[in-house]
Predict the 3D structure of the following.
Amino acid sequence: MNDSTTGRKECSSAFIGYSIAILGAFLIVAGLVWAMVHYTAPPPLGADRAAERKKFLAEMRAADAEALNSYGWLDKSKGIVRLPIEQAMKLVESKWQNPPAARSNLISRVEKATAVPPPVSYE
C-alpha cells in the first residue's frame, strides 16, 4: 500500500514537472515571437508623408473629375476630343440605334485615330 501512494506521488510530481516545462516552453516561444514582431516592425509612417499622400490623392481626384466632366482636346491634329461622360453616353445611345452603321463609323474613327503617318522621303 505504501508503494502505490509513492507511485502516485511520483506520477503527480512528474506530471506537474512536465506541465511546468511545457508552460515554460510556450512562454519562451511567446516571448521570442513578441521580440521578433517588436524589433522587425517598420518605422511608422510620418505625418508629413501622410499629408503629402493626402494632398496628392486630392489633386488626382480633382484631375479625374475634371477629365470626366469637361470638354477638351486629346489630339487636335487628328480631331479627337474629350467629352463629359454623360454627354458621351447620350451620344453612344443615339448612334447605336442602327448597329451596322455605328460599327462601320466606329471602325473608320479607330482607323483615323491610329493611322500611321507615311514615311518621310529625303529626295
Notes: Residues 3 and 35 are 48 Å apart (CA to CA). The chain has a mean pLDDT of 86. The helical segments are 2-40, 47-68, 85-95, 99-113.
